[in-house]
From TrEMBL:
Signal peptide: none annotated. It is found in: Cytoplasm. It comes from Herbaspirillum hiltneri N3. Substrate binds at residues 117-120, 209, 275. It is an enzyme of class 3 (hydrolase). Belongs to the FBPase class 1 family. Binds 2 magnesium ions per subunit. PANTHER family: FRUCTOSE-1,6-BISPHOSPHATASE-RELATED, SEDOHEPTULOSE-1,7-BISPHOSPHATASE, CHLOROPLASTIC. It catalyses: beta-D-fructose 1,6-bisphosphate + H2O = beta-D-fructose 6-phosphate + phosphate. The keyword Cytoplasm applies. Mg(2+) 2 binds at residues 114, 117, 281. Its cofactor is Mg(2+). This is Fructose-1,6-bisphosphatase class 1. InterPro entries: FBPase_C_dom, FBPase_class-1, FBPase_N, FBPtase.
Length: 334
């Protein structure tokens, strides 16, 4: 077995050997890693920690907040406020951006996150996770405003997610491949367990919430009908379907064995945007997927090229095995 190295050693190697990441960014990623360990601990307690169920409030999305949504958001805010590497934060759980309090030093990065993705799975013990994205603050910025966060996904300097499942894993890219760390609970350390993850270009597995089929636009309906027809249809091979309703878990499966994940816009939304959020779900996942040799579009263009207009804007998402994403995207263009 190859010698295991920690997240810290991996990041220092990236910083020192490859000059890929500045020390401030390394520190930021380590702080986020520590926060994800704390969230994993809180999630793992379940009913014993009296952290299940609803918080009795709604977030900016109009979704009922779970206690663990609020706890996870607080953990990330508190862990990152004092470090001196951030100029501001934004979260799915907060309507406006969260500037760094004046009593703390400011840094040059902006951090966005979905603190606990897949909340509908919390109370039934199905994998959930944290998704995060890091941007550089615009040059000359003093006090951050929402517009400073509205940068296309190509400007991300780091992105990652944690999955709180049978294992707790942290998957990270800083633009130099995708690497996976598994939490060693005895040592409390993130240990490198997979380097340079690669998504197979072809797959026999697709992920979509099929209960929305009657609302889909024709290109999605055509793609899904073809994969459902399997070896009897134009694809000439049988497909399997998975839908965990936790994006982090579906994406992690795809990173490990290929697949195509789809959350399309459908006839229910007049603005044709879909459900998932661009800044702290689609962009970080698109950066990771592309770094692993996959593709990510909104059916029309590369997700990373989209110029954001609003902090919580939604976007249609097709991501995963390159050849399948290109196929379903091509159907949108016919
Ligand atoms: P649906 C979780 O709420 C989430 O944002 C993603 O993690 C997941 O892929 C999707 O929504 C599930 O949506 O409509 O199937 O419940």
């Amino acid at each position: 077995m190859t010698k295991r190295i920690s997240l810290t050693q991996h990041l220092i190697e990236q910083q020192r050997l490859h000059n890929k990441i500045p020390s401030e960014l390394r520190l930021l990623i380590e702080v986020v890693g520590r926060a994800c360990k704390s969230i994993s601990h809180a999630v793992g307690k379940g009913a014993l920690g009296e952290v299940l169920g609803s918080a009795g409030s709604e977030n900016v999305q109009g979704e009922v907040q779970k206690k663990l949504d609020v706890i996870s958001n607080e953990i990330l805010l508190e862990a990152n406020e004092w470090g001196g590497h951030l100029a501001g934060m934004a979260s799915e759980e907060m309507e406006t951006i969260h500037p760094i309090p004046n009593r703390y030093p400011k840094g040059e990065y902006l951090l966005m996150f979905d603190p606990l993705d897949g909340s509908s799975n919390i109370d039934v013990n199905v994998s959930i996770g944290t998704i995060f994205s890091v941007l550089k603050a615009p040059d000359g910025m003093t006090t951050p405003s929402e517009k400073d966060f509205l940068q296309p996904g190509t400007k991300q300097v780091a992105a990652g997610y944690a999955v709180y499942g049978p294992q707790t894993v942290l998957v990270l890219t800083t633009g130099d491949g995708v690497h996976c760390f598994t939490l060693d609970r005895e040592m409390g350390a993130w240990v490198l367990t997979q380097r340079d993850m690669q998504i197979p270009a072809d797959t026999k597995e697709f992920a979509i919430n099929a209960s929305n089929a009657r609302h889909w636009y024709p290109p999605v309906k055509r793609y899904v009908d073809e994969v459902l027809a399997g070896s009897t249809g134009p694809r000439g091979k049988d497909f399997n379907m998975r839908w965990i309703a936790s994006m982090v878990a579906d994406v992690h499966r795809i990173l490990n064995r290929g697949g195509v994940f789809m959350y399309p816009a459908d006839a229910r939304e007049p603005d044709k945007a879909g459900k998932l959020r661009l800044m702290y779900e689609a962009n970080p996942m698109a950066f990771i997927v592309e770094q692993a040799g996959g593709a990510a579009t909104n059916g029309d263009q590369r997700i990373l090229d989209i110029q954001p207009e609003k902090l919580h804007q939604r976007v249609a998402v097709f991501l995963g095995s390159k050849n399948e994403v290109e196929r379903v995207t091509s159907y949108h263009k016919e």
